[in-house]
């Protein structure tokens, strides 16, 4: 019983650790090794990713613990460039591919040239969603966590993470202090995370709301800083019910744009020939506010059913000063079929409203002034990034877990994700290039996750 | 929003005098009752949804960031 008491104490402490996105060290005197492989795939030849993860954690005699995690992420495929589908063919020159080709020519790298040679510019057929086929990146993440009990029921948690991609680097440090009350039935925690990002887009940082293709840049790189504060309460409600409640505040400042996203500019629904290049049409680079404040409310319940089954119900509400409000409901049932076998059906519902500067395209006259070869945006911010649009999404999945002996487990999970457009249509003139074209690309994706955990 | 927060905190506070004795915590100690019973799965999901939706966080800090073009 003492052991059980200690274990639940640890779990509550770990609930706090979860605040830091760090550890789940659960046992003494050995390393717990968790490994997993994610294979993620989007429909219509969009993004494909392969992501292996290795996590090592160890608990020491003084009940302190450390956690080390390494993630590698290989991404390929096509990503929407932000332009609208139209009833005529559209040719784009990929800034990212063009920069890579230029670099490869400088380095005399024939292998790279061959890879990108035919993808420097791409043409999208009438009616098709403009996808940039040169999307390719690798991401490596290293994160560390350290938890240590202090006196008087306090626990301290410190951590850090470093993440690097071809055009993006992120560094973060975090700390949290938790305190147990009521014989460890209640844990209150407060955590702080500081993140510094550096963005160096292929081809430089495009000047916001200027013509795509003109090549105007504001230097080669930019930065972003994020501060997150989180207050958490974990409560044992009764013998079968554990609850967690988190309140999160986040302040992000700096470069928030997606440097590869553009917006179509139309005149009464018709594409406008680029004043500088008669072979292409007029598009502008997007622009977002430099600051973003978010607040989130997260409530999770774990309820034991019978001897081994568990219902997990989570709800999150998020709101920010870009007018995005979202609701997320997450349901999982842990069905223990036998001692060594379980199934976990899962359903997630998500719904968000659009950012106030989200728009599928820009209208010449009211939103962009086009006079000869002079193009001036009349709006301060605009983005057609579908992530900022209004949509709902369903995720359904099933996980199967198999115990291999007393200290190792193999699991396989399959999930399917589908977005549904909730945006109101922006008016277009009948018979124009944009008439009848989809204004929001609903994403369909699926992923398989293979996991293996053992003690060493 | 703030009101909701205060109400929930008050409810949690009232339930603070939990009568669950240590020897009644057998169910709560099971791995499937952990609030984050598969942290790697949570990390994958956080990354996927961060890349495709405008919301993130709630459960914890992401850590590591993402360009996510």
TrEMBL record, chain A:
It comes from the Bacteria. SUPFAM superfamilies: Porins. Residues 1-27 form the signal peptide. Keywords: Signal. This is DUF3570 domain-containing protein. Residues 103-122 are annotated as: Disordered. The keyword Hydrolase does not apply. Residues 104-113 have a biased composition (Acidic residues). The keyword Signal applies.
TrEMBL record, chain B:
PROSITE patterns: PROKAR_LIPOPROTEIN. Residues 20-69 form the DUF4266 domain. It holds the Pfam family DUF4266. This is DUF4266 domain-containing protein.
